[in-house]
Amino acid sequence: MTNTIQILSIEKTGKESSLQKEHNNKSIKIIDGYFFSRNLDDQKFTKISKLISNDVSQTILTKKNVNKVLSSYCNFNWVVEIKFLPGVTDNIATTVKEIIKDNLKSSFKSFELGSTKIILIKGRKEDITKISKNEANPLIQTIKIYPFKQYLNNFKKNQFKIEKVKLPKKKYSKKEINLDISDYNLSLIGKLGIEENDKSRRGTLGLDLESLKTIRNYFSTIKRKPTDVEIETLAQTWSEHCKHKIFSAKIDDIQEGIFKKYIKGATEKIIQLRKDNFCVSLFTDNAGGIEFNKDWIICHKVETHNTPSALDPFGGAITGIVGVNRDCLGFGKGAKPIANTYAYYLADPNKKYQLYRQKNKDPMLPANFIAKGIISGVRVGGNCSGIPTPQGNVYFDDRFAGKPLVFCGTVGIIPKKIKGKLSHKKKANPGDIILMAGGRVGKDGIHGATFSSEELDPNSPVSAVQIGDPITQKKMSDVIIRELRDENLYSSITDNGAGGLSSSIGEMAKESGGFIVNLEKVPLKYNGLYPWEIWVSESQERMTLAVPPANVKKVIKRFNARGVEATIIGKFIKKEKAIVKYNKTEILNLDMEFLHEGYPKLNLKTSLPKIKKEKKKIIKKNSLIVKLHKLLSSPNIVSKEFIATQYDHEVQATSIIKPLQGEGRVFGNATAIKPLFDDEKSIALSQAAYPQYAETNPYDMAGCSIDTAYKNLIVSGANSKKIAILDNFCWCSSDEPDRLYQLKEAAKACYDYAVAYQTPFISGKDSMFNDFKGFDKTGKSVKISIPPTLLISSIGVVDKISHLTKITPDDGDILLVLGNTRNELQDSVYSKIIGYEKSKNPVVNSKDALRTYRKFEKANKLGIINSAIGIDLGGLGIAVTKMAIAAKKGLTIDLKLKNKISVDQFLFSESQSRILVSMKKNKLANFRKIFKGSDYTIIGRCTASDVVEFKDNKKIMRGKISDFAKSYKQNIKGL
Amino acid sequence: MNVLVLSGYGINCENETLHAFEVVGFKGKIIHINDLIQNPKQLNNYQVFAIPGGFSYGDDTGSGNAMAKKIMTNLYDQLIDFSLKDKLIIGICNGCQILINLGLVPSLNKKDPEVALIENKSGSYECRWVDVKVNNNKSPWLENISTLNLPVAHQEGQFMIPINLLKSIKANNLIGLQYIDHQKKLAKGQFPFNPNGSKDDIAALTNQNGKVLAMMPHPERAFYHYHIPNWQSKTLKKFGDGYKIFMNAKKFFA
After folding, report:
1. What average pLDDT is seen over chain B?
2. Taking residues A44-57, what's their average pLDDT?
3. B121 to chain A: which residues are within 8 Å by CB?
4. Active-site residue B218, yes or no?
5. What is the mean pLDDT of residues B213-232?
6. Catalytic residue flag (residue B96)
């Protein structure tokens, strides 16, 4: 407790405005604090204070002024002090240290430093508890609440302490694990982890009994016991997260598994049919690559970060986005990230679910805390990295209360050739040095890969949370893309994500044969990590490079010159062996074949699930206009503008179709960027998932997802021959035959629709156990499973700027619906909000759909289409009102009902493959020629009025555009 | 005509900023702050010094503060020297925050920062397009410009200026840009026209000779016509409003 000091700087105004708004309390104040492990003399205190604060906007608190300064705001009575737990990355502290060292040079010797956030409040004790819960996460932060006076006294007396990571006392000695034990004890190792000498367990390995027996057999053949590091490594490498065992397993009569048959199978079939150079690099690399133009490749990857985001929403989401950025950096020789995408599937932020991971304790975070944390995490990750985040969506459903789904994607760009060599090919050669660059290794994220493959239950480890540091990554990324890649200074590169070094080096070594790693060389955040921890740690912001020995000095020098650490930690070898040493003791020695392919293959069976019929609900007797308002303001349709404006989508100056479209700022279905200054081609991006359709018919659900993701790009103006898609399956209870049945059906649809649309899958990922097992507030045990969710992300090339469409019609335009509207209201937004009687789920007819799309594409290229919007959630009625809101122009709709459908069915059915378009009157003749023999309906026109009106034979129903806009732009309650 | 575009530690708009200068006729180079500290003499080869937008040091200790302190420790005299010659300096967004933290703008008393950029009144990051006007400012960067339509993207863009200083800033015509509404009248703090609640709708300040411009909006992101929101509904031109700023730099040296 001695020899420490803290510097507190208080903002004169600002900073707490959002907090004050949220808690409806003007008497809240935030203080930035920094605490030092050394005492500072007055001169140094002043100097350092000046370095880390701003004289104009902040005041440094001292023993002398503290009473006066604080009482000038109000009479506070409570204080919350939030600090990072020891060992958790503290980015602010790192920066402060750097500023001080740079300025004071050698006059200031080594010191420890931490940052803290202090919130002062005048209010009741309950208020302060609530605020502290909202502002901090106990998994990574300590929260201390003090009565104001006590805190003031402590401050004056300098009473506080710096906590450090507890270091293990004993030195590491090689630990051998006896697997010749009972099945029960064996399964304990899998579920709870390796037992330490003090009988404590390290945390779940996620290994089932069969895998452990396979490991036992392997070691009995080579006649020795496995080390702890070997078991940890196998657990990482064989995890569902890394090996996708369910997708590769034999399932029913599908020997090769659904990945090979349906996903890869579709792409192979498409490549065979297409005979072009569109597909460049598929499935094998960190991301999938397609041709952009004759000189450039673009790649795309979408990841999920569900479990980490459930435990620490901000941390989970930020590491999700910067993690997938690294997938891009690790594509080929390193692609430059040029766009981020996001999709969140969340519980209703306005509801209190009150779930507990253990009976009456260990509560799940509140739904609004999770939602806000996730949204902020991607904001900070994306904005700080200088990567635009134009494309995304959010969807709400109670079934995400146990686990939110957080999809983060990145698009990258790389020249086709680097110094004459194909950039997407890489190969670690025997003799290449293994170089780790970027951040240091700590305890963060240990066992991430193994636990994200499991259900969230009381044994889920808390150290599985990582904190992102986008600036460290940005520094590293700049060196790789700008200063190393184009000189071909390394032969291979990959990122450190799930499984850390064990996974990245293990994967790269497949290219050379094997590897030898010296773990003691790995730079650590703090001492005291066990070798197995170093080996599997998921500390972020690191890339692993294979560097020819002749280039190593140069590469390290370039990293260091930019303030980035790079360390030699081993070498790649020809022999197919995985070898890890720690201070010369060999602690891992496995055959590469066993490491990567030795896991027991699953043999899965499926069974037809019982389909729960949607209950018949009485349709509310609302007028059409009221129904439109209700739908527009419902959380899944309402504008997500508040996210679009906090995600920088303009950085890199590439934004060409923005997330908010038209003068009336409607949140678009697709966005586009123009990545190169000297080529008018653009990249259009979209995505779609229909978890609400999954339980009724998973095949159609997948069909709808592909159709929508594809349609949105066609509507935006993309070339239909240059569209690729990505699959992200987030499933639940994937050990249950009926869930596997749904999985198989969805995968089958993936094959059918991808082949029909000729859109190759270029990359994908799956997350199979998105279930929550715990307790409700009464202590009753509950299981909440997400609805099966297949996110299809689409990426396409728009050849010309003039092909890009807009969603805003002009005065006098004729309005048409392309495609056929059927009575398909089941599981629709309408049926949820208004009610339904008897209907069907939407089904995609790919032949009809393609006919519409091809003709649309042709008409658009000929300049016939003036504006267009894809019809999806909420149906035609919502598409029409969105168009009017965007254009701030009146629309008149004639309700011409065909196929015996009612007005509500016509306006709210979610029938797929439909586009609402507008065109000038004089283009109609040409349009008719092109669309001869296709389904289209002229439904009205654009007027100069300020209303949307619907006419049927009897009456006219009118709604003011400004009123619709108000409903559409309502705040989402709880956010 | 050469432009030095600064990079490093989380600055991230250097490519598009350099591109904008190149299109109007500059030759330029992106130079890492560490390389510049190693060899400050290279500043002599340049007529324009540009600090682009970004997130230097992740905004830790306040946006622009850490980078400003790094420059202050290692390059301050050279930069002051640069600003006194017949040369131009521009700081955009994070670059603006850095110039303000360095005290290079408005630089009325020549020492220490006099102005601060604090968190937006909305409390959130704001990425949106705004209209700004030039008000009686003689800066070469702003010559012959009346209004501009540009995007902002920042969390800390609210100018905080002590009252007395504001008076002399006005007296000296150092307000570079001000946010305006659709009627081209001052936004009067009204959101979203004034996206951050800046005093007197200030979006940019200059130093006394006008050669140093610190602006929160991003001209390089409004450089081409297709950058403008809903460009499809507007008359086709080649460039957006941001182009004018870069052209002015060219004209200054022509």
Report:
1. 94
2. 87
3. 14, 17
4. yes
5. 97
6. no
Among chain A residues, CA nearest to B23: A677
- What CATH superfamily classification does B2-253 receive? Class I glutamine amidotransferase (GATase) domain (3.40.50.880)
Partner-chain contact B55 A658, CB within 8 Å: no
Q: Give B233's contacts in chain A (Cβ within 8 Å).
A: 806, 808, 810
* Domain ranges within chain B, ordered by starting residue: 2-253
**Mutant choice from B127, B152, B182 vs A, greatest count of A C-beta within 10 A:** B127
A593-625 per-position pLDDT tens digit: 998 889 998 899 999 988 766 666 777 788 999
Beta partners for residue B151, in sequence order: B129
**Closest in A56, A474, A651 to B153, CB measured:** A651
- How far is it, in rounded angstroms, from Cα A638 to Cα A348? 13
Q: Residue A858 sits in which domain range?
A: 805-975
**In whole numbers, what is the pLDDT of chain A averaged over residues?**
90
Closest chain B residue to A90, measured at CA: B60
CATH number at residue A911: 3.90.650.10
Cβ separation of B162 and A51 shorter than 8 Å?
no
Confirm whether A278 is domain-assigned. no
The distance of B53 to chain A (nearest Cα, Å) reads 9
ipTM rounded to 2 decimals: 0.97
- Measured CA to CA, the distance from residue A733 to residue A769 in angstroms comes to 5
| CB spacing of A384 vs B55 below 8 angstroms | yes
| Interatomic CA distance for residues A47 and A36, integer angstroms | 14
Q: How does residue A219 score in pLDDT terms, banded at 50, 70 and 90?
A: very high
pTM for this model (two decimals): 0.94
Q: Is residue A566 part of a domain?
A: no
pLDDT category at A462 given cuts 50, 70, 90 is very low
Residue A56 is nearest to which of B12, B116, B227, comparing CB atoms? B116
Query: Residue A544 contacts by C-beta under 8 Å, 6 or more apart in sequence?
Result: A434, A435, A436, A437, A493, A494, A495, A496, A501, A504, A505, A508
Task: Count up the domains in chain A and report the number.
Answer: 2
CB-CB contact of A30 with A76 (8 Å):
no
Q: How confident is the model at residue A283 (pLDDT cuts 50, 70, 90)?
A: confident
Least CB-CB distance to A14: which of B7, B119, B226?
B119
Are the beta carbons of A651 and B221 separated by less than 8 Å? yes
DSSP assigned state of A295:
S
Judged by CB atoms closer than 8 Å, whether chains meet at A96 and B223 is answered as no
Structural domain contains residue A535: no
Helix (H) or strand (E) holding A515: strand A514-518
pLDDT of A460 > 50? The answer is no
Domain end, chosen from A112, A136, A157, is at A157
Dihedral angle over CA of A247, A251, A255, A259, nearest 10: -20
With CB atoms and an 8 Å threshold, state whether A647 touches B127. Answer: yes
Residue pLDDT, tens place only, A489-541: 999 999 988 888 988 998 899 999 999 999 999 998 777 778 888 888 888 88
The shortest CB-CB distance from B10 to any of A21, A384, A648 is to A384
B13 is catalytic: no
Which of B11, B122, B106 has the alpha carbon at shortest distance from B64? B11
Neighbour tally for A110: CB within 10 Å: 8
> Could A801 and B74 be called an inter-chain contact, meaning their C-beta atoms sit closer than 8 Å?
no
DSSP string, B121-146: TTSS-EEEEEEEEE-S---GGGTT--
Give the pLDDT band (50/70/90) at residue A461. very low
Q: Are A456 and A732 in contact (CB under 8 A)?
A: no
Q: What is the pLDDT of residues B126-165, one digit of tens each?
A: 999 999 999 878 899 999 999 999 999 999 999 999 999 9
Torsion of CA B9, B15, B20, B22, to 10 degrees: 110
Among A127, A157, A187, the domain-final residue is A157
- How many contacts (CB atoms, under 8 Å) link A and B? 171
The answer to whether residue A403 sits within a structural domain is no
